[in-house]
Write a structure and sequence with these properties.
By secondary structure, this protein is mostly helical. It folds into 2 domains: about 45 residues, no CATH class; about 110 residues, AhpD-like (Up-down Bundle), CATH 1.20.1290. Helices cover about 65% and strands about 0% of the residues. It contains 8 helices and no strands. The protein is globular, with a radius of gyration of 17 Å. It starts with 14 loop residues before the first helix and ends in a 15-residue tail after the last helix. The model has no long low-confidence stretch (mean pLDDT about 95).
Length: about 190
């Protein structure tokens, strides 16, 4: 597949695009500018707002990284988004998500060895992504585990990473070296 919106040479960027890239790099304290942010650069204002939301959800949400990264993996698998998976599977492992859980989600299976927090989170993620609704029992379980802010931050993670996944799927963002396509669902 051909990347529909590959990286832009600096000379072709507008002033607003250059500012958005610099803002991204300054906020994230990085020299890298890649992945979903490359196509989002075509709308520099959207990029600036989206990356601020992402910075909050990834680094300051009510959920610890072990849970937020699990939610990101569920979202990446839901959208079959290999780039997102390639970035976040190693981060999830470092954050404490077991290899068995990561493997099950990668294969499109339901993980069987989730702790109680992970089960509450996984249940809400799957139900909302699959049915576009959350039942009373699923909501109550997540609310009991994570509170109002945690539930809202979880929904925000699902929405934000869905935005990134849809952006990369629509624009066919190329995988970085070493990344592999996710397997087809069984």
């Amino acid at each position: 597949m051909t990347d529909r919106m590959p990286p832009m040479p600096d000379a072709e960027m507008t002033a607003a695009q250059r500012e958005a890239v610099q803002d991204y790099k300054d906020t994230r304290k990085t020299d890298e500018f890649e992945g979903p942010f490359v196509p989002l650069l075509r709308s520099p204002e959207l990029l600036r707002h989206a990356q601020r939301v992402g910075e909050y959800l990834r680094y300051r949400s009510a959920l610890p990284p072990r849970l937020s990264e699990l939610a990101i993996l569920v979202t990446a698998r839901h959208w079959s988004q290999s780039y997102e998976w390639g970035i976040h599977a190693p981060i999830a492992a470092k954050a404490g998500v077991s290899a068995a859980v990561i493997e099950a989600i990668e294969q499109g299976d339901t993980p069987t060895d989730l702790d109680e927090d992970q089960m509450a989170l996984y249940g809400l993620c799957r139900e909302l992504l699959d049915t576009r609704q959350v039942s009373e029992p699923t909501y109550a379980l997540a609310f009991d585990r994570f509170g109002e802010r945690g539930v809202i931050d979880l929904v925000g993670i699902l929405g934000y990473y869905s935005l990134l996944a849809m952006t990369m799927n629509a624009t066919r963002t190329a995988l970085s070296p070493g990344m592999q396509e996710l397997p087809e669902f069984r």
